[in-house]
Amino acid sequence: MDTPSDTPSGTPSDTPSHAPSDAPSDTPPLPYRAVLDEVGPRLKRLRAQRGLTLAALSEATGISKSTLSRLESGQRRPSLELLLPLAGAYHVPLDDLVGAPEVGDPRVRLTPRKLPNGGSFVPLSRGPGPLQAYKMVISDRGAEPDLRTHEGYEWMYVLEGRLRLVLAEHDLVLGPGEVAEFDTRLPHWFSSADGRPVEILSLFGRQGERMHVRAKPLG
User: What angle is formed at CA 12 by the lines to CA 11 and CA 15, rounded to 5 degrees?
Assistant: First the structure.
C-alpha cells in the first residue's frame, strides 16, 4: 500500500489487542452530553417543586433512593428505564425531563445569482440530475432579440409578469400561469414583454430530457 500505516511496524498500538477498535463507549456523543448533564438538576428541581422526598418518590417509581440520589447529582447517567417511571410519577412528558434539543431551522436559504444578460436566477435543485429547476427573474433585455442555441430542452412557467419568448419564427407573449416548452437547439430568446421584471419557473434538461406533466382534464 502506498499510504503508510499510522502505527509504525513493530510498534504496539495504543489500543490493547484484546479490545476491539469499534467497542461502544459509555460516553454519549458530545452534542448530547450537555443535554444529559442537565437531567439531574432538572429532576431535583421537579422533586422540590412537588414537595416529594426521595423515599416517597422511590415508593412511587420502584427506583431505589440511592439510584434517585445519584441521578439527581449526576453520578448516574439517565436511561429510558429510569426516566419512564419518573415521567409517570410526575405526570409530565418524557421531553420535560430530558429537555430535548430544539429541531434546527428547516428553511433552505437560497442565494440569487446574476444572469449575464440581465436579471437573476435561483437554483432550486439540491443535487445533480438530468433535470434542473430554477426560479428566474428576467429584466428588460431590449426590443431586438439576440437568438441563441444550445443542447437541451426547456420548460418555462410564468409566475408573475409578462414574458416575451422568440422561438425560431414565433414571437410570443406569455402571462401568469402560461407555459412554454421547447428544444433549445432551436434559435430562442426571451425577455420582459413590458419593461417590468417577469418571474418564471424553469425546468431544464441539458441532454434533451423532456418534462412529463400529468394533469386531470377540466370539466
Answer: 145
**Each residue's pLDDT tens digit, 80-104:** 889 999 988 888 888 888 876 555 6
3-state secondary structure of 34: helix
**Looking at the chain, how many residues does it have?**
219
Q: Residue 159: CB partners within 8 Å, gap ≥ 6?
A: 135, 176, 199, 200, 201
Cβ neighbours around 217 below 10 Å, total = 4
What is the spatial distance between Cα 42 and Cα 57, in angstroms, rounded to a whole number?
A: 15
pTM: 0.48
Find out whether 87 and 97 touch, Cβ atoms under 8 Å.
Answer: yes
Distance CA 121, CA 92 (A): 49
The rounded distance, in Å, linking the Cα atoms of 218 and 175 is 20
Q: What is the C-alpha to C-alpha distance for residues 71 and 193, in angstroms, rounded to an integer? A: 70
